[in-house]
Structure formats: C-alpha cells, structure tokens
Amino acid sequence: MRKSLNFIKSTIVSVTVTTLLLVLVSCNTSQKEKETTFDKIAAKEAIAKENKIFTDAFNKGDSIGAAMTYATDAKFMPSNQKAVSGRKNIQTTIAGYIKAGEINLSIKPVEVWGDEMMLTVEEEWSMTDKDGKEVDRGKALELWKMEDGKWKLFRDCFNSDLPCMPPPPSK
C-alpha cells in the first residue's frame, strides 16, 4: 500500500512539474514571438508617412487635415502654452499657428520605441518662412497609438532649440 501511495505522489508531482514547465515555456515562447513580429523600422516609416500627411496639411493651411492625424483623445502640449485636449481643440490651436504667418514646417523622426499598440517617437522639426529662412527649430517627444488601424498622435510635446525671447521692457 505504501509503495502505491508513493507512486501516486510521485506521479502527481511529476505531472505538476511537467505542466508548470510547459506553461512557462509556452509563455516565454509567445513573448519572444511577439517581440520578433513587431517591426520598428516599418513603424518608423509609418510615423514618417503620418508626419508627411500632417506637414502637407499644415503647410497648405488645412488645420482640419492636420488635426485628423491626432487620436480622438489626444493632447497637444506646445511650449509656453497650456495643453489642449481633444481633436477639435487641437484643430483650433493649429489654425492659430497657421494664421500667425506663412511658414513651412518639416518633421523628421529620429528614434522610435514601443510596440504594435503604442510608440514613443523622438523627432526633429524646423520652420522656415516663405523665403526659406529658418525661423525656428526644435525637438519633440510624442506618443503615437494605434487607432482604427492607423498610427495617430496621442501626446504631442515639443519645444524650440532657439533661446527664449526676452520679456518686453517694463514701462
């Protein structure tokens, strides 16, 4: 009887250990497969394409087209201004930039981190006037998320590389 109980105990332990090992291996394998299936180069190219859509719209004075590159729950965080939430409010803010003067915007992704659902993108940008003279340049860190099968700006935070303007003289 004792040998029978020992046999049953050792069988249960063996089955349990084997099951745990199989679960651990399968979890590890699926994580590795997930990591290898995400293509950061393709993601960076997709972001560059969306940036082109944004800059083409912006440079043509189309604030609606530019705002459509943002997620519905996006936040736009320009330097020296309060953050703006939501696509409609972002569109209004972009329209203000467009109305401020004829400028040409260019954006270049530098580095991309993330996965198939959310990306962090480091970018460089520059603005030139109608004569091609650079009027501003800077950098950005943005979060992009997958929405309706496309990468959309989720958080947009940027600032200038140029020195701040001095305050107006006091009276």
From TrEMBL:
InterPro entries (UniProt xref): DUF4440, NTF2-like_dom_sf
Domain DUF4440: 53-153
PROSITE patterns: PROKAR_LIPOPROTEIN
One Pfam short name: DUF4440
Protein name according to UniProt: DUF4440 domain-containing protein
Taxonomic source organism: Flavobacterium rhamnosiphilum
